[in-house]
Specification:
Structural class: mainly alpha
Order of helices and strands: HHHHHHHHHHHHH
CATH superfamily of the largest domain: Hypothetical protein, domain 2
Number of helices: 13
CATH class of the largest domain: Mainly Alpha
CATH architecture of the largest domain: Orthogonal Bundle
Shape: globular
Number of strands: 0
Distance between the termini: 26 Å
Radius of gyration: 18 Å
Largest sheet: none
């Protein structure tokens, strides 16, 4: 995993993720980005910011229908409105961000997974990018790239893949490097390792099954 990390970092440079101004914005984005594009999420966050609604209390005070209208560009507005409010209620009951600081990562993860609408990918995005906890995020891009490289089948359960990446990336600063590797995998998936791969411009082409198929 370290060689993969190094090759991606050489090709793309540091990514500086997650693209948000505050940890709470990361949390909001992690919920909104489910089943939509980041471009749409950015539009919604900008709308919430302009309306002075980017706080847990402000989002909780809104009627569900009103919040749904604010976040409509991100898709599934009522579903995501309820999920956002569930996350905000949990955050406020936990003492906001300051109340999470001393909680063990495993306990925080279990609590997040118990929040309505928060699955493993969303929970781990919050832990890694909002709270700087050493938890790797598995998404469809990661599965695609690792499967094409022959490192996984791509069908493994989420937890199996997460622990495989964490156990094979050797680092003295896991939170920093899990953050950077995940961001680089997203960048690579969007640049070259697309659903229809652009192998000619791929920095990982050597040793990749998709790249080898193109050459044969």
């Amino acid at each position: 995993m370290n060689e993969l990390y190094a090759r991606l970092l050489t090709a793309y440079g540091a990514q500086g993720w997650w693209p948000a101004e505050t940890p709470f914005e990361v949390m909001v984005g992690a919920v909104l980005t489910q089943n939509t594009t980041w471009i749409q999420v950015e539009r919604v966050i900008a709308r919430l910011r302009a309306a002075a609604l980017l706080s847990p209390a402000s989002l909780l005070d809104l009627p569900v229908d009103s919040l749904a209208e604010h976040i409509r560009p991100a898709g599934y507005p009522r579903v995501k409105a309820r999920r956002l409010q569930a996350l905000c209620a949990w955050l406020m009951a936990s003492g906001d961000l300051a109340g999470l600081a001393d909680r063990p990562t495993d306990a925080l993860r279990a609590d997040l997974l118990a929040v309505h609408g928060v699955g493993p990918e969303t929970a781990d995005s919050i832990l890694l990018y909002a709270l700087a906890r050493p938890v790797f995020v598995i998404d469809a891009y990661t599965r695609r790239i690792l499967a094409r490289l022959g490192l996984v089948t791509g069908r493994e359960p989420y937890e199996v893949l997460r622990r495989q990446v964490e156990s094979t990336l050797h680092t003295d600063d896991p939170a920093r490097d899990y953050n950077e590797l995940h961001a680089l995998l997203v960048r690579h998936a969007k640049t070259a390792c697309r659903a229809r791969p652009q192998c000619a411009a791929c920095c990982l082409r050597v040793g990749c099954s998709a790249g080898q198929a193109l050459e044969s």
